Amino acid sequence: MTTRPLDLLDVDALHSEEELAIRAVVRRIVDDHVRPNVAQWYERGQVPVRDLAKEFASVGLLGMHLPGHGCAGASAVAYGLACLELEAGDSGVRSLVSVQGSLAMFAIWKYGSDEHKDRWLPGMAAGDLIGCFGLTEPDHGSDPGSMTTRARRDGDDWILDGTKMWITNAPVADVAVVWARTEAGVNGFVVPMDTPGVTAREVKHKLSLRASCTGEIVLDGVRLPADALLPAARGLKAPLSCLTEARYGIVWGALGAARDSLHTALDYAGAREQFGRPIAGFQLTQAKFADAAVELQKGYLLAVHLGRRADAGVLRPEQVSVGKLNNVREALAIARQCRTILGANGISAEYPVMRHAANLETVLTYEGTSEIHQLVIGQKLTGLAAFG
To answer: Which GO BP terms apply (predicted)?
Structure first.
């Protein structure tokens, strides 16, 4: 009799019936709409963002943890479970949902005016409008405070100039939340993507996260009305709070890629025979499985703890850094280990493991590299900032 890795500690007992029901819905939509197609999307480097957004919106996944304006208002733990199931399909698919809900929609929901919220959030929740989040620049990733994108006043209007890079959803987006330096510091702007002077170019030739639409946004004398400014966003803490929101989803999502890799390897090892018996029966293979299962469960317990703190309104950014650092690092190690169990078949698109491992190389560095999260934790432990 076999036991699935997350059943070893009976972690389902940690969840309410509602949370498990939401998980089941997301698992079904991934099984129906992602798994049959994702290997092809990955190989081609193309993903039907708008079609997927509509499917996800049909079950309330877009901005699901936000209240009002057509959003589901689900708990943080339920949102985490959704991220796990989405990334069990593919990291790029989870990124679509994360950027839409936890970056673009969250920024408008938290920092926008009532007019911003009424104009954009219902359509984004319904999947009719796609959003993106413009913070990272070609020369400024881990140090967003050094951004060179500028916004200057011209009468009552704003004029934006600059370039944003590695922006998920940008080539198909209807609206971008763009962060720029003004005389007052860092401010956020709601930028319709059809505004004159805005150009989005798709990033090609990626070797990771290929089932995700990634682009560069060029802002060349983009004129925006005064009310394009996010009125409640003042300083760099505003975009960083959005990143914390998105990083929380990654804490859960990475576990989905790890779980799917481990399930695939277990099924494969039970059927693959060498030296007259299934390779699952060899001690070295079982040691790999045991270590992977232990790390998966530890990461899951950490994610649940952070989720409960988020639902209680007491989750702190450095705690999210602990989750992102640990869970992505361990998920990548699990995917790599599972690839070895599949041997040569591990590099075939017939199995998802190599795709998960390649994707997790990107997840390891976006939304804060491992080194940045180490420094966040280190600062909290020592009281000394070691950035720069």
So the answer is: fatty acid beta-oxidation using acyl-CoA dehydrogenase; fatty-acyl-CoA biosynthetic process
